[in-house]
Amino acid sequence: VQLQASGGGLVQAGGSLRLSCVASGIIFSANAMSWYRQAPGKQRELVASINSGSSANYADSVKGRFTISRDNAKNTVYLQMNSLKPEDTAVYYCNSDFRNGRRYVYWGQGTQVTVSS
């Protein structure tokens, strides 16, 4: 199983970035997919998730600014981030989650997002 995240970078406050995470080795369409982030000195937190039916949930801190989406044909989950703030600076990780009596969770390697003020 491999989750390959990309799209991070340095952006000014108010700017936008789109993160992508390509999955292999899983039945992508059957997995819930999520983006987490971890800022220096802080715990990893859930940013957004999308289930196999494409129903999405967001952390309060990103509602109205971030959009998670998925393309099952490309085994890819996206995170469109608009109106970025310095407090969005973190390493962003994608995550897959499948349950069928057992739970299978996998993590990508992370991509750095830095928002300058």
Q: How would you summarize this macromolecular structure in one to three sentences?
A:
This protein is mostly beta strands.
Features:
117 residues; mainly beta; 7-stranded mixed β-sheet
Descriptive report:
- By secondary structure, the chain is an all-beta fold.
- 0% of the residues lie in helices and 56% in strands.
- The chain has no helices and 11 strands.
- Strands 2, 4, 5, 6, 9, 10 and 11 form a 7-stranded mixed β-sheet that branches. It has a 4-stranded antiparallel β-sheet with strand order 1-3-8-7, with no helix packed on it.
- A hairpin with a 5-residue loop joins β5 and β6.
- The radius of gyration is 14 Å and the shape is globular.
- The model has no long low-confidence stretch (mean pLDDT 97).
Helices and strands in order, then pairings?
Elements: E1 2-6, E2 9-12, E3 17-24, E4 32-38, E5 45-50, E6 56-58, E7 66-71, E8 76-81, E9 90-99, E10 103-107, E11 111-116
Parallel strand pairs: 2-11
Antiparallel strand pairs: 1-3, 3-8, 4-5, 4-9, 5-6, 7-8, 9-10, 9-11
What's the Cα radius of gyration?
14 Å
Largest β sheet strand count, sense and barrel closure: 7 strands, mixed
Structural class by helix and strand composition: mainly beta
Which ranges are low-confidence, i.e. pLDDT below 50, for 5 or more consecutive residues?
Answer: none
Give the integer mean of the pLDDT values: 97
Q: Could you spell the SSE succession in H and E letters?
A: EEEEEEEEEEE
**Shape designation:** globular
Terminus-to-terminus distance: 37 Å
Helix percentage: under 10%
Number of strands: 11
Beta-strand residue percentage = over 45%
Individual helix count:
0
